[in-house]
Write a structure and sequence with these properties.
Chain lengths: 566, 650
């Protein structure tokens, strides 16, 4: 219900029942927060959003206080400012204070807050927090000393991913966020999606960096370093640097990486096209055999999803498609096919994937992705690390000339870009399936995506006389709910489900540049859409390199699920 | 009418008493009830006060001694494990009732006194060596001559025992004696003749306010839950008594668990809940055991469970044991704990009455609040309003402790002055030192000082002097207590017990504790930085305390600086003396003591030299010794071992 509230002696419209914070922010009042996350229920832990409400004895937290008609609010009274400043000073009283050596220096919300509150000295002296950092995981590093206990990571792990690999332990001043039995993330149920890194306000959660490894390889003259850039990484670089889709960011990146000493720079798009073709092939086979055991087929390109299934839902394992992820298709192609063709020894090739994903670091460590102890992908750089790499060499993409990536993996179809966001891959697979199954019919491919992000995430594609059901979900909670609903309703009209563990798909990946809120994934998705239009080919199989490869090698039959179950 | 077997008793109690509204009219029934309740006995009956307080005082040994005695003598005597009458000082209390005679109470009966006591009393003689403390008056029984009644005893004369009327009197785990004493009547009458809305109305009208510390009107809370639309509602009894210095809830649950079950049933009925949780601390093992036994009996009798006495009312009572955590006493944290989550409070609004357990409307009431409910339902609003003051009705139960002559659990009508409680009921101070303050709990309570000692127990009056009633702790302090040290202790308690969720409570209490520790820490002569820190800390203390109380998430966090704020308010000089003069007037802060040796008195016996744990004393035999202050840790060993009073404290 519409109503009016008085804020700092100014009347503003608001809706009764919504949180005061929402109403205030909507009208441009700046309210600092640490624990608040859009779309999540408020916890009221950080108390930074306190405001003065007339008639209330104490200050109230605007994030959890509902709007009432005619209420009088003061957002910047002396009392409020003093309280907020004291809270930040309390947080800083035992902070390690090593900003100069901190990875989040300059991007740290605590640092911003201290600046905004005009904190000039350490007011309360307390022993600096020390705690053992946890580098046990393959993807996610934790440094509890930097933690401000805002519980954002705990909530996203519990509510969005339903994994709850980390939670609060101990009481009082000793409270920490930690994994079960303080054992380290590697033995926890963590699915390594990195969503916690995305929401962490400080440097308490970071990715396990492969930067030093890559730099060492770049300096090793025996090794030929081959970078493979995924289309979704191109989109996020474009977005972060403020480029447009037509600005040829891949070409600029290629030039920059070549300057770093890269032997070759490839586009992961071709591998993505192969991936889509193979998955569509498996789907076609499933449909042809009327294979109810494996229906619905689920995508397997997301390592976090595979990890989740093998840990929490082993019964779903047979439904996973048995296709390597694009990064590993590229890696194995380079180390075998490409090496053979160009007469390079496989062990002298050092492959580096650039993706917006931290779980790919984990995927690279899977046993089935290694041969004689050497992984197909030697290092995985997230987009964040890519920027750190470029910065350390002082390279500015805006001033970079354009240079085409190396052949043969130069170009990609629109399908490859579609892998970058939730719903895209389902469409790409559907298009490919349509090509395989249509035979001689002249009907046109139609894939109707519901417009709203929150709407129903499934559609039916007509191929000949057949209806094939496609669905797409992002985040584990959504996947779980969807699978439960399917089972409860006893539906069998869905044949393919695209699952991505991060919110919004890879566009919201754990390796993306840190962004507050959930708007950035949408922007990246839009960029992916723009880039699709610049692609030469529409469907994956139109990619001549991929099609050529498919013609040569019978790829089918690699039973991923048997090995993923480890 | 005689009641022979257990089955008969049960049928008699359910059919003739509980389900028959005319139960009071028949003299025969009244007589049978007095036998079941133990007011009249065929054979001698012995009750041993076996509450936790009694057990600590050695009641178990006394009990076994009595049991052995009875077995040896082959006497036809019933022996009962009783509850606590409230005067914990006199535990183990042994009550003896002979047929036709009033019941006698003997205090501090140790196991070796049992033989002579029972030899005398079972032969109808009053023991000379151990005179009885009091007798329970009863018009139908013969009075003992020359022995004061319970009401005449100084500890009890100022009390008005409504909630504690059965405490220490009946067998706590006998549903029969509870029903015979009038228990569960109110519940059965309520579900048969009142609608839930009427019950809420009665409680609202009675003016019963929450006894947990907040003082929020119970009826208002219930009405909000009753009016909330939901398919499921819950009633929760908060028995997480964790304020330092209070154990009255535990004592009354141990002594009369059935009334808590009855109250929980009425409260559940009043809001339309079908499930009541009694959330109790795991450490209250005796209270839990008795509550579980009582609940089993109530289930057997069909008083709880499905379709209670064919009324169509279903109420299940569940005992939920909680982990040892102060924060569980906060209602939202308590609800989270019941749900199986980490006990952390959540923001209010939404209040539990709208969205509590599993997002359903829930009322959370303190044990003491609930104990009032059956009484109000049974005796009516008017009766309840006759006790207490105009604004605050009923009684308040306190745990008396500290430097008092008498300590234990007391129940006083609202409006009693604190002076009366200290000097009449409490019997004055134990030591020769002067009265300093009363600590009414640290959670929501405040300090009562010499100046405010004439304040009455009343929500309004306490508010006027800037205090609060608290949950029921009543710790009396004399001048031998250091208020700064006490404030430090309370702050340390809060630091340890903070749930760790919100910044002000988690970080703020730790910082306050550091400041307090600085104030009581041993002065180091060459560390000017420490001195600066100390001064700086004290200057920040008040503003920091203000921010914590203003911005903390839950009421426990908000009250965490209370101890410090109260000390600053009432005992500022003491604080200043610690900071600036580095002196503790009560001589409690050992770190501030400076020991030195009187050269004239020292004989050079080397006793202190040998005992000093840190080798801070130098000197050779037969010559005066000297204490090196930089090394001294202030342990006081030299002071203790010196036979010539040569070690002095500055």
């Amino acid at each position: 219900m519409e109503c009016k509230i008085e804020v700092n002696n100014k009347m503003i419209p608001a809706r009764e029942g919504e949180s005061l914070l929402e109403a205030l922010r909507e009208h441009g009042f700046k309210i600092p927060t640490l624990c608040h996350m859009n779309r999540f229920s408020p916890t009221g832990a950080c108390r930074l959003c306190v405001v003065e409400v007339e008639g209330m004895k104490d200050l109230v937290t605007s994030c959890s206080y509902p709007v009432k008609d005619g209420m009088k609010v003061k957002t910047n009274s002396q009392r409020v400012i003093k309280a907020r400043k004291s809270l930040v000073e309390l947080l800083l009283s035992n902070h390690p204070d090593d900003c100069l050596y901190c990875q989040r220096n300059g991007h740290c919300e605590l640092q911003w807050l201290a600046g905004e509150m005009n904190v000039k000295e350490r007011k309360y002296f307390a022993g600096k927090l020390t705690d053992n950092p946890d580098y046990s995981s393959t993807s996610v590093a934790r440094d509890p000393a930097k933690c401000v206990l805002c519980s954002r990571c705990v909530r996203i792990c519990e509510e969005v991913q339903r994994v709850t690999a980390i939670d609060f332990i101990s009481r009082g001043n000793e409270t920490k966020v930690n994994s079960a039995f303080r054992k380290g993330l590697n033995v926890s149920s963590c699915i390594q999606c990195g969503q916690c890194i995305q929401v962490c306000p400080t440097a308490a959660l970071l990715d396990i960096s492969h930067l030093e490894k890559v730099q060492a390889a770049l300096g090793n003259h025996k090794k030929q370093v081959m970078f493979v850039i995924s289309p979704s990484a191109i989109a996020s670089v474009t977005e972060l640097m403020g480029f447009k889709a037509k600005d040829k960011v891949l070409e600029r990146l290629t030039a920059a990486l070549k300057r770093l000493g890269a032997g070759k720079v490839f586009n992961m798009g071709t591998a993505a096209d192969i991936h889509v073709m193979e998955e569509a092939g498996q789907l076609a086979e499933m449909l042809k055999n009327k294979d109810k055991e494996h229906q619905p087929l689920m995508s397997s390109c997301c390592p976090s999803w595979v990890r989740y299934v093998s840990v929490f839902r082993p019964k779903v394992l047979p439904h996973l498609a048995s296709v390597k992820s694009p990064g590993h298709i590229a890696g194995s192609l380079l180390k075998t096919d490409y090496a053979r063709e160009h007469g390079i020894a496989g062990e002298n090739i050092y492959t580096v994937s650039i993706t917006p994903c931290v779980a790919k670091k984990y995927e690279a460590s899977w046993e089935k992705n290694t041969h004689q102890g050497v992984s197909e992908v030697d290092a995985v750089l997230t987009v964040r690390e890519l920027f750190r790499l470029l910065r350390s060499f002082g390279l500015n993409l805006a001033q970079m000339e354009e240079e085409a990536p190396d052949s043969p993996y130069q170009q990609s179809s629109a399908a490859a870009y579609k892998l970058g966001y939730s719903g895209g891959k389902a469409e790409a697979v559907a298009r490919e399936l349509f090509r395989i199954m249509k035979g001689n019919s002249k009907e046109k491919f139609r894939f109707l995506q519901p417009k709203s992000m929150a709407g129903k995430r499934e559609t039916q594609v007509t191929i000949g006389k057949k209806q094939v059901g496609f669905a797409w979900v992002s985040s584990i909670a959504e996947a779980e709910d969807y699978l439960d609903a399917l089972r409860e309703e006893g539906r069998d009209d869905i044949h393919y489900i695209e699952v991505m563990a991060c919110l919004g798909g890879c566009a919201g990946g754990g390796g993306q540049p840190i962004s507050r809120g959930f708007d950035k994934p949408k922007a990246r998705k839009k960029l992916c859409g723009d880039m699709e239009k610049t692609a030469t080919w529409q469907s994956a199989s139109e990619n001549t390199v991929a099609a050529d490869f498919f013609a040569r090698i019978p790829f089918r039959g690699n039973k991923l699920w048997e090995q993923a179950n480890k | 009418m005689s009641v022979e077997t257990m089955q008969d008793t049960r049928q008699f109690l359910t059919n003739k008493v509980l389900l028959d509204p005319r139960r009071d009219e028949d003299a025969g029934i009244r007589k049978s009830l007095s036998y079941i309740a133990g007011e009249r006995v065929h054979n001698p009956m012995i009750y041993v006060g076996m509450g936790t307080c009694g057990r600590i005082a050695g009641a178990e040994r006394t009990f076994h001694a009595i049991k052995e005695y009875l077995e040896d003598q082959d006497a036809n005597v019933t022996l009962v494990e009783g509850g606590c009458v409230g005067l914990c000082k006199e535990e183990p209390i042994v009550d003896i009732q002979l047929p036709g005679k009033a019941r006698l109470s003997f205090g501090r009966v140790s196991h070796d006194q049992v033989q002579s006591l029972l030899d005398d009393i079972l032969n109808d003689n009053l023991p000379d060596a151990k005179p009885p403390q009091w007798q329970y008056p009863n018009p139908i029984l013969q009075k003992w001559e020359g022995i004061s009644t319970l009401q005449e005893h100084p500890f009890f004369s100022g009390q008005q025992r409504l909630l504690m009327e059965h405490c220490g009197v009946i067998d706590p785990v006998s549903i029969d004696s509870y029903i015979a004493k009038g228990g569960y009547w109110a519940f059965i009458d309520t579900i048969s003749s009142n609608t839930p809305a009427q019950v809420c109305g009665i409680i609202t009208e009675s003016g019963l306010s929450g006894r947990g510390g907040g003082g929020y009107p119970a009826g208002k809370k219930w009405l909000a839950a009753l009016e909330a639309v939901s398919d499921n509602k819950y009633m929760v009894c908060n028995a997480v008594e964790s304020d330092p210095g209070s154990y009255m809830n535990r004592a009354i649950i141990e002594s009369n668990p059935h009334r808590l079950i009855e109250a929980a049933l009425i409260a559940s009925y009043a809001i339309g809940a079908s499930k009541a949780f009694i959330f109790i601390r795991e450490e209250f093992s005796l209270a839990i055991a008795r509550l579980e036994e009582a609940l089993k009996q109530a289930r057997d009798y069909g008083i709880t469970g499905h379709h209670i006495f064919d009324s169509g009312v279903n109420i299940e009572v569940v005992i939920k044991k909680g982990a040892r955590a102060f924060v569980c006493g906060e209602e939202t944290a308590l609800n989270n704990s019941i749900e199986g989550k980490r006990a952390m409070p959540t923001s209010k609004p939404p209040y539990p009455a709208e969205q509590g357990l599993w997002q359903h409307p829930t009322i959370v009431n303190n044990v003491e609040t609930l104990y009032n409910v059956p009484l109000i339902m049974k005796n009516g609003v008017e009766w309840f309003r006759t006790t207490g003051t105009e604004k605050s009705n009923g009684t308040k139960v306190f745990t008396l402790s500290g430097r008092l002559q008498n300590y234990g659990t007391v129940e006083v009508p609202m409006g009693t002055s604190f002076r009366d409680i200290v000097y009449d009921i409490g019997g004055g101070l134990k030591s020769k030192q002067d009265f300093k303050a009363i600590v009414l709990g640290i959670n929501t309570g405040s300090y009562i000082t010499k100046e405010t000692l004439d304040t009455r127990v009343d929500f309004e009056e306490l508010k006027n002097i800037g205090g609060a009633l608290g949950s029921g702790a009543f710790v009396v302090l004399d001048t031998g207590v250091c208020m700064v040290d006490l404030a430090r202790f309370f702050t340390a308690f809060f630091k340890k017990e903070s749930c760790g969720k919100c910044i002000p409570c988690r970080e703020g209490t730790a910082r306050m504790l550091e400041i307090m520790e600085n104030a009581t820490r041993r002065p180091s002569e060459n560390n000017s930085f420490q001195t600066l820190e100390r001064f700086k800390g004290v200057m920040q203390l008040k503003s920091l305390a203000g921010v914590i109380s203003e911005t903390s998430l839950c009421s426990l966090g908000k009250s965490s600086p209370n101890a410090i704020l109260n000390t600053l308010k009432h005992f500022k000089q003491e604080f200043d003396a610690h900071i600036f003069e580095r002196k503790c007037s009560a001589n409690i802060c050992t770190d501030l003591r400076i020991y030195f040796i009187d050269v004239d008195a020292c004989t050079g016996c080397t006793a202190c030299f040998k005992k000093c744990p840190v080798d801070a004393i130098i000197g050779s035999p037969r010559y005066p010794h000297y204490i090196v202050q930089d090394k001294c840790i202030g342990c006081g060993t030299c002071f203790d071992v010196c036979k010539f009073n040569a070690v002095l404290i500055k």
